[in-house]
Amino acid sequence: MSLPLPLLQSLSNVPGFHRETFEAVHASGEQVTSIRLNPEKPIDQGPWTLDNNKISWCSEGRYLSTRPSFTFDPSFHAGAYYVQEASSMFLWHAVKEMLGTDTKKKVLDLCAAPGGKSTLLASCFSDGLVVANEVIKSRAAILVENITKWGSDHVIVTNNDPSHFQSLPGFFDVMVIDAPCSGSGLFRKDPGAIEEWSEDNVQLCSQRQQRILADVLPALNEDGILIYSTCSYSVEEDEAIADWLVSEMNMESRKLNVDPSWGIIETNSPDTNSYGYRFYPDKVKGEGFFMAAFQKKTGVERVRLKEQRLPEPSKQELPILQSFLSVPENFSLFKQGEAIRAIKRVWLADLQVLAKCLYIKKAGIEIGTIKGKDVIPAHELALTSLGRNAFTSIGLTEEQALQYLRRKDLVLSDAPKGWNLVGYGGLPLGWVKVLPNRINNYYPAEWRILKE
Questions:
Q1: Which end of the chain, N or C, is more open, meaning fewer C-beta atoms within 10 Å of its C-beta?
Q2: Strands 172-178 and 339-344, how do they pair?
Q3: Rounded Cα distance, 202 and 11, in Å
Q4: How wide is the angle at C-alpha 284 spanned by C-alphas 278 and 275, nearest 5°?
C-alpha cells in the first residue's frame, strides 16, 4: 500500500505521527473488527465469544478476534449490536466525560448515516431526545433501518440540509458533527480511498466543514456542547477547524481526560491552543480519527418556536388499537399518513416544533395501521420494548431465523393463530401471521437477506 507522499509530508511535524510505524501498519494488511453492544438487548451468544476484550473508551465496545459474517447472524438483525469502528466509539467517553449522568438532553447528530453514532447517542441519552439527520435521501433510508433495528423510542430521523436547522435557534443541548472529510483515516480499512485523496480535496473538505458548522451552530443552546470529528489526519480538517470555531464562532475548547495507556494523542491547535484528540492506527487498535469538544459561550435570543399539530387517531381507531396493544400512559399517539405512531409524552411538543421546520422520516415508534377492524402491526413495534414486553415471541432455530430473514416460508408447528412475534436468542426479529393453511412472513421485503 503506497500512501500519498503529500499527506505524509504534511504530517511530519504533527504530534504523535511517526512515519515508519505509520507506513508499516498500513502495509501490514491487519484489519480490526469491533462491535458495540446494545444495552437494551443483551445477548448470551453470537458468532464470537464475548470475553473481556473491551474497548477502553467505551463500556459497550468489544474487539473481535475474527470478522464473522454479520449478515448471517440473526442477533445482528435483531439489533443486539452495531458493527462500529473502535476509534469512533470515543464519542461515548466524550459524552460521559462532559455530561456524566445529566443525560436528559436534546441531541443532534447532524451527519448521521449509517447510524453508528446515532445508536451510540441513543444508548447514552436513554432519557433524552436524539435527532439523527442525514442530508442524502438514499443514506437516510439506511439510517432509518439501523435506528429501527436498535429499537429506541426516543429517536427522530430527519432528512434535511444543515441550513434548515437555523429555524431552531438554541433548540439543542448537544451537537455531534462527524463531518464529511477527505477520508485519510480510513486508508487501511479502504485502500480505494487512497486514489480519491488529494490536497485539493482536503481544502474543499475544510471549506465545506466550516460551512456546515456555520449553518447549524445557531441551533445550539448557550453553554451547549459541540463534539466535532473527522476520519482525516489533515490539520486543515482537524486542528485548523478547532481554531476557526474558537476564533470565529465564539466556541470554547474543552479538555477531555484520556488515559495515557489508550494511545490517543492529545494535540493543541496552533492559534488558539484548542484541545484535539488524534487516533493513529500504529498507536491504537482502531482506524485514523480526530475529535475535539467545545462549549458555546454566546447567548441565544429566546423566541417561541412554532409547533405543527400532529394528526391523532380517530375515536373509531382508538378502541381497535387498544384491543391490540395497551400503550403506556407516558406515551402520546399521533399519525403519519395512515400509520399510528407513539412517542413519550415529554417529547411531543418538541416533535411538533421539529415537524414545523424539518422533513421527518421517522419519529418514535410506528405501532401499525388499521385495516377495517384489524391492526396490521409495524416492524418497528416488534423491535422495541413495547413489542417485546406486550407479545409472546416464538423462538426460532438459527436456520429458521435465517429463513425468516430471507422472507421465505416458515413451518411452525402448534403456533397460535393470528399475529405472532418470532425471535432468536431471546430477541424478536419481527412478525408472522398464522393462518389456517399457511404462515405469512411480514419481514420487510427491502431488508431481506438476499445471499444464500
A1: C
A2: unpaired
A3: 13
A4: 20
- What are the pLDDT digits (tens) for 291-330? 999 999 988 887 889 999 999 999 999 999 999 999 999 9
- Give buried/exposed letters for 336-353 (b at 16+ CB in 10 A, else e): beeebbbbbeebbebbbb
Q: Which of 413-417, 422-426, 430-434 has the lowest mean pLDDT?
A: 413-417
With CA atoms as reference, report the closest residue to 273 among 254, 297, 290: 254
Give how far the C-alpha of residue 257 lies from the chain's centroid of Cα atoms, to the nearest Å. 24
Amino acid in position 345:
R
CA dihedral angle for residue 244, residue 248, residue 250, residue 253, rounded to 10 degrees: 20
| Single-letter code of the amino acid located at 380 | E
pTM above 0.85, yes or no: yes
Pairing of strands 33-37, 58-64: antiparallel
Position 356 pLDDT exceeds 70: yes
Q: Which three cell numbers stand for residue 22?
A: 505509520
Q: Cα–Cα distance between 241 and 210 in angstroms, integer?
A: 7
3-state secondary structure the chain: CCCCHHHHHHCCCCCCCCHHHHHHHHHCCCCCEEEEECCCCCCCCECECCCCCEECCEEEEEEECCCCCHHHCHHHHCCCEEECCCHHHHHHHHHHHHHCCCCCCEEEECCCCCCHHHHHHHHHCCCCEEEEECCCHHHHHHHHHHHHHHCCCCEEEECCCHHHHHHCCCCEEEEEEECCCCCHHHCCCCCCHHHHCCHHHHHHHHHHHHHHHHHHHHHEEEEEEEEEEECCCCHHHCHHHHHHHHHHCCEEEECCCCCHHHCCEEEECCCCCCEEEEECCCCCCCCCEEEEEEEECCCCCCCCCCCCCCCCCCCCHHHHHHHHCCCCCCEEEEEECCEEEEEEHHHHHHHHHHHHHCCEEEECEEEEEEECCEEEECHHHHCCHHHHHHCCEEECCHHHHHHHHCCCCCCCCCCCCEEEEEEECCEEEEEEEECCCCEEECCCHHHCCCCC
Q: Is the dihedral of CA 409, 411, 414, 420 positive or negative?
A: negative
CATH 3.20.20.70 is held by the domain 392-452? no
